[in-house]
Amino acid sequence: MKKTILTFLLTTIITFSCLGRNDFLPLPTLVKKIDTIYMNRNWEAIPKGTKYSYFRTIEKRNDSIFLVKDYYESGQLQMSGAYKSATLEERVGKFTWYTEKGEQVHLFNYEKDKVSVKSYIYKFKAEFPKEPSVEIEKKGEVTACCFLCKDTITQTACGVFYVENRNNSSNKYEISTTLENLTDEWKKKMEKQYGKIIAEKEIEFKGYLGKEIIIETRVTKTILLLRFYLATNKFFGIIAGPYSVEDINNSASHFLNSFDIIDTTEWFQYKSNKHDFKIEFPNAPEYEIESNETRFGLVEMTSISFIDSISVTSNSLYFLISNEFPTLQIQSYMKDSSSYFFKHKIDDISKSIGKIIKEKEIEYKGYSGKEITVKRKKKKGYARLRLYLIENKFYVLGIFTKTKDSNNAIYRFFNSFDIIKDI
Questions:
Q1: Distance separating alpha carbons of residues 211 and 412, to the nearest angstrom
Q2: Confidence (pTM)
Q3: How large is the average pLDDT for residues 284-303?
Q4: At 376, is the pLDDT very low, low, confident or very high (cuts 50, 70, 90)?
């Protein structure tokens, strides 16, 4: 089953053949007067009084815009949008499609030189140079689809491709294996069809791991650019090209950078107005306050933690610790450099948790920080930590995990941290 779905997407990419009709974008109907039109399951107009699957109402506005609404047989709205003429050929503004239960499926916004697409059901948004075609295939619990925009003159295309396995509603994919396996199969097909892979690198987007691949075409020596992301149980492929090197920096980059993943799982956002931050946990965390004696005197420590006992990821504990130090003492201690402060803090972590096996400098909005990986000494596993000193507040973001490898949840937790006041 998985092979069939993947073959469907690979074939779609290679041939750029997603130009067929789709379930969510009914073909326009020629209208001679403002009326209710009844249609069969193929969106073909039928006589009134005949058994129908859909019906359409058209309202002419004063500005010569024709507002069209399509309905399911039940009367539930299926689509709403506007056209520039009664022929219903040119769309303008926002078009929204709905399921029979009234849930939003897609939102297309037709502007002068682009069509902005937001897919609620497939969890992404992107800006296409014109309306993309949509192709969908379902096999059991596996769904594959593609949104593809092709320029028949330049023979270039841009598209978003998507595979979801609903049997894996939790993050059951191992990034190190599944992402590699998926991208390797795509790479082989693309190389065979187009040319040589000249660059490849790991990338990260909103906490999700991915790959970027650049292919030089065999004949024209133009560039094909692909990006892949694995977001929980959803696999995204974004493609643009083939373009010249100059166009890669314009058309292709604009399309690729317009792509965004809509959150595929709901996390709990914790917000502390007292300590000026917000952060997301997989579920509602516990909150605790205690006072500790430090070299700066008695300091209040706030701890927010969530024990993930049922997760299928390798992460077992998420936590954030916040300390607020007396401003004058911390400034004097730092001696114009945060390195003194972080050195002592990392030494404390090494003594209490385990051996530091990786350390690098990071920053947040101009403030210095550290990211470290610790091999725990009392229990098997590792701790992934980020440390920030922001004015007189010290934040420790941490995750206990079974392996030292990264996963999507680690990046999502770290990257959700934000200060909620001007600094």
A1: 17
A2: 0.59
A3: 80
A4: very high
